[in-house]
Design goal:
heterotrimer, A mainly alpha, B mainly alpha, C alpha+beta, A: mainly alpha, MetI-like fold, 13 helices, globular, B: mainly alpha, 2 domains, 15 helices, 72% helix, binds adenosine-5'-triphosphate, binds magnesium ion
């Protein structure tokens, strides 16, 4: 039997309509349309089947893009989580914790664009016979090494870009993991200490397992951001010198090469890479309900 | 771990002076690491800040760290120049014009939807909310081409409403998610008591739910505002090359591509764009961090 | 005219039925208490009446109006929640006046009525504070003030006292009863505390597992429970139960249960004669078991042999925890008793007041007659 509902006086749709109209027009419809367009040519006129994808997965130019995103995914995520975890544990031990955390967190507030300027400035290179005006190369020289053109040298420039990303996001990892750390009851740590565990054993056998879910949340966020990384690359190198990434490549396909079919295919690949994480999110959400 | 001794709230017990000195010394490496990291983290921003007050020729010939050796020579000319001649002044206004309305729209639209998701029962509520959760991580790259074409068809590219609408839509999944989680945790009795006293859903929403959610709304507002203020991609695509509507991020990135080594311009321009976020950050850090923690899933 | 009628009401949550064919008529101006164990559906019954949950089947009327599809705000009902549900961001004045304001009552009128409600509950001095600045007892009063200010047709109170300490609870109980007398409005009051039910109600409805077991005045429920559940639920301390076979030896009846034996006086033999040879469930209240030396006059008592296990001295009475074979039996006896723990003794059961139940259906076969109302204690 249908329930008669005396309680409902307003239609939920009145409240949901603005949101879902916007989501429909700006997210749901465009996503499906983009998938569709990825099977068409540069002007979206001729159906080309999988040609765009085949091109992307075979052309050396774009294979570099995949390699770079993979580097970002592994190195950026790995370094940021490790640093964030380490700093969360260490700052927890000192009295100036709040200040230390704020300092590391500040870059989160500024734009990637400003950060890109900041790091281009850090990486300024002058030939060895001149005075180095960039911090990184000045330190290199002071330590007796040769200065390096960080932005243009193909063997190091991806690491340089990733380092700037790590600088921006470590604060995020630190703050979230630190909040998780505060949630661990001191009794548990004291109990371990009474049982004779050393501080190192406590870290590996008590803290780390208890922080697992927080670390997973942080890592998922970072992985998503590593796949979508755009501003830093766009401003620092525009993807030149073999530093291109998917998001920037898409921009280039659109505005430099005017190939909307390929641009759409790049976007779809980005989506496919993120779908597993989306599934993870949904599963976690349903479990929490 | 760097620390071998007192950690994690070790109990206070009386200690002699020598013991205390030994303890302080044994913690030396810990402090060294933390302070070292802090210095390393501040250096890039400090360098930018200092350089923005130095003349073009000085920046080109000496490192910024030498600026504190007398004679001290600082100038405000760079700022004057970027704000007027390079359009950063106009861009600052544009950034405000883009971020403030879009933030308000996001909050209002998201709060309405979050209310329905938490306090109105209807068929398919769960499924619809899962759509929102799924959209949390969809890269906006997937939407650029169709939306751009739509705007071009409507003649809306290069207008503020174009970015307001797009930003609002892109911000919604996160905003709805965050607010629903907050709204649904409000005591059920409060809302039911209001309904009994004659409150419609709209009254309950405006008079009970919204006032009680100020912390969440503040966290969301600050987070969203900074997010939009710092956005480059959306502005770049939908505002195109129209300089009179370009926000600061777009102006800076075009300065980089045309004046890549004019550091007196770039440093001061970048710093102009950072002033507001830094003030917001230091004044409202608590809310900002709350927004981050609540939305740790946002991509 | 604010009669309330539940007519064959069902409430289902998925497969689970929280109310099963719920029928209840509440008269105008009545103070009806819904009582039953936790989870039996009391709150659900109230919430259906308030319109906070949808009715699965059946009808509910207030006065002559069927209200199934009327939204809560138009039912003219006020409710006091267990948590009080005061709006934390409003002053007490605004809390009390909120409902009036929503009904577009003129400002002066709101002010007057808020003052009056505050005066009735003695909370005038708190009007400009916020809920967070009040004690639990004060909040409870504000919640009541907020309910009465609208002068609704029906008041619902869902365990309004359960967050108060024991002493405050006793006082507030009396005040709510006074308030009912003063307002002359229908009150429906939910509790799982049978003492509250006994002391406040004009009538009590006892519920179990979504089903109404019995409706009646406190006295009726105490004297004539219709089944084992009601008999055990009403009255404190609870009724003793034991099963025994009705036997006949040499023309006298005997109740024979395990190692418990009661000889039945001849004048009761008639009534129990029809049960001879059957295994039955017997119930007797602690106050109807007496020390042999202090049996009140006129009681037709039957002796039982017991072992005293524990004695609790309460001052004006003594609780004897006894073992009769494997049956545990509690008696509430005259304070002059000299029985002590460890004694083997004989006590007297007042057979007049013995209830007899069918062991299978648990329905009453014969009620005890007459008798004093239950004493109430915490
Ligand atoms: N929204 C719901 N969904 C599913 N089951 C529910 C819901 N609300 C109540 N129930 C179930 O209905 C039954 C009756 O609940 P109700 O709240 O009416 O009990 P109660 O008699 O008020 O108990 P208490 O004395 O503990 O307040 C319980 O078993 C409860 O689990
Ligand atoms: Mg209840």
């Amino acid at each position: 039997m249908r329930e008669r509902v005396g309680k409902l006086t307003a239609s939920p749709w009145l409240y949901l309509a603005p949101a879902f109209a916007l989501l429909g027009v700006f997210l749901l419809y465009p996503v499906t349309n983009t998938v569709y367009l990825s099977f068409f040519d540069r002007r979206s006129e001729v159906f080309v089947g999988l040609d765009n994808y085949i091109y992307l997965f075979t052309h050396p130019d774009t294979l570099v893009v995949f390699r770079n995103n993979l580097m970002w995914l592994v190195l950026f995520t790995g370094a940021t989580v490790t640093l964030g975890l380490l700093l969360a544990v260490l700052t927890n031990l000192v009295r100036y914790e709040a200040m230390a955390k704020a300092i590391v967190f500040v870059p989160m507030a500024v734009s990637f664009t400003a950060a890109a300027v900041i790091w281009r400035f850090m990486y300024i290179y002058q030939p060895a016979e001149f005075v180095q005006t960039g911090v990184v190369n000045a330190v290199m020289v002071a330590l007796g090494f040769d200065p390096i053109a960080w932005i243009t040298t193909r063997s190091v420039n991806n690491f340089a870009l990733i380092a700037s990303g790590v600088w921006m996001w470590t604060g995020f990892a630190l703050v979230v993991i630190s909040a998780g750390l505060k949630g661990i009851p001191t009794e548990i740590i004291e109990a371990a200490r009474v049982d004779g565990a050393t501080e190192t054993q406590i870290f590996w056998h008590v803290l780390l397992p208890m922080l697992r879910s927080v670390i997973v949340v942080v890592a998922v966020t970072l992985v998503i951001n590593s796949l979508k990384v755009f501003d830093l690359v766009y401003v620092m190198t525009f993807g030149n010198f073999e530093t291109d990434v998917l998001a920037n490549r898409m921009f280039k396909e659109m505005f430099t090469f005017g190939n909307f079919g390929r641009a759409s295919a790049v976007a779809v690949i980005l989506l496919l890479a993120i779908v597993p994480l989306m599934a993870l999110n949904i599963r976690r959400f349903r479990r929490e309900q | 771990m760097a620390d071998g001794g007192a950690a994690y709230g070790a109990p206070d017990r009386p200690e002699s002076r020598t013991q205390r000195i030994v303890r302080k010394l044994s913690r030396g490496p810990l402090h060294l690491v933390i302070i070292g990291v802090c210095l390393a983290w501040m250096t890039p921003t400090a360098g930018l800040f200092v350089s923005s007050f130095r003349t073009r020729s000085e920046i080109a010939t000496t490192g910024w760290w030498t600026a504190f050796v007398p004679p001290l020579e600082f100038t405000l000319e760079n700022y004057q120049h970027v704000l007027t001649a390079r359009g950063m002044g106009q861009s600052f206004i544009n950034s405000v014009m883009i971020s403030v309305p879009a933030t308000l729209f996001t909050i209002i639209v998201a709060a309405l939807a979050a209310y329905a998701f938490s306090w109105i029962e209807f068929r398919g509520r769960e499924a619809l909310f899962l759509v929102v959760v799924a959209l949390l991580v969809v890269p906006i790259q997937l939407t650029l081409i169709p939306v751009l074409r739509m705007y071009a068809g409507l003649g809306m590219t290069g207008t503020f409403p174009a970015v307001w609408l797009a930003h609002t839509a892109y911000g919604l999944p996160f905003a709805v998610f965050l607010l629903r989680n907050f709204f649904i945790a409000l005591p059920k009795d409060l809302l039911e008591s209001a309904y009994l006293e004659g409150a419609s859903h709209f009254v309950a929403f405006t008079r009970i739910v919204m006032p009680l959610s100020v912390p969440a709304l503040a966290a969301l507002g600050i987070f969203q505002f900074l997010w939009l203020w710092n956005d480059l991609l959306v502005a770049l695509i939908y505002l195109g090359g129209f300089r009179d509507v370009a926000p600061m991020t777009v102006t800076i990135s075009s300065l980089v591509s045309s004046f890549g080594s004019e550091w007196h311009l770039l440093t001061s321009a970048a710093f102009v764009s950072m002033v507001l976020p830094l003030i917001v950050f230091f004044a409202l850090q608590k809310y900002f961090v709350e927004g981050i923690l609540a939305g740790a899933v946002k991509g | 005219m604010a009669r309330v009628l539940y007519d064959h009401v069902w409430k289902r949550f998925g497969d689970f039925a929280a109310l099963k064919d719920f029928n209840l008529e509440i008269e105008d101006k009545e103070f009806l208490v819904l009582v039953g164990p936790s989870g039996c559906g009391k709150s659900t019954a109230l919430r259906l009446l308030a319109g906070l949950e949808a009715i699965s089947e059946g009808e509910i009327y207030i006065g002559d109006d069927k209200i199934n599809d009327v939204p809560p705000k138009d039912r003219d009902i006020a409710m006091v929640f267990q948590s009080y549900a005061l709006y934390p961001h409003m002053t007490i004045r605004d809390n009390i006046g909120f409902g009036l304001k929503l009904r577009k009552t003129p400002k002066a009128e709101i002010a007057k009525r808020v003052e009056k409600a505050a005066e009735i509950l003695g909370v005038e001095s708190l009007l400009d504070r916020k809920p967070g600045q009040l004690s639990g007892g004060q909040r409870q009063r504000i919640a009541v003030a907020r309910a009465i200010v609208r002068e609704p047709r029906v008041f619902l109170l869902d365990e309004p006292l359960s967050n108060l300490d024991a002493k405050l609870r006793v006082n507030t109980r009396a005040e709510i009863s006074k308030l009912h007398a003063r307002l002359g409005t229908t009150f429906i009051y939910v509790t799982h505390d049978q003492t509250e039910a006994m002391t406040m109600a004009t009538r009590i409805a006892v519920m179990d597992a979504g089903v109404i077991q019995q409706v009646g005045t406190p006295q009726e429920l105490y004297d004539h429970p219709v089944n084992v559940f009601v008999a055990g639920f009403i009255g404190s301390p609870a009724m003793n139960f034991f099963s025994a076979r009705v036997g006949e030896t040499n023309g006298t009846l005997e109740l024979d249960g395990a190692s418990l034996k009661v000889s039945v006086p001849l004048d009761r033999a008639e009534e129990l004669k029809g049960f001879v040879g059957r295994e039955l469930l017997f119930g007797i209240r602690p106050e109807n078991i007496h020390d042999t030396r202090y049996v009140p006059r006129g009681v037709s008592a039957a002796p039982v042999t017991v072992k005293i296990d524990v004695t609790e001295l309460m001052g004006n009475e003594v609780f004897l925890h006894m073992l009769a074979g494997e049956n545990k039996i509690l008696a509430r006896v005259d304070p002059r008793t000299e029985l002590r723990a460890g004694d083997d003794a004989e006590v007297m059961m007042d057979l007049e007041r013995m209830h007899v139940f069918d062991p299978d259906s648990k329905e009453v076969l014969r009620s005890g007659v007459g008798g004093a109302a239950s004493d109430s204690d915490e």
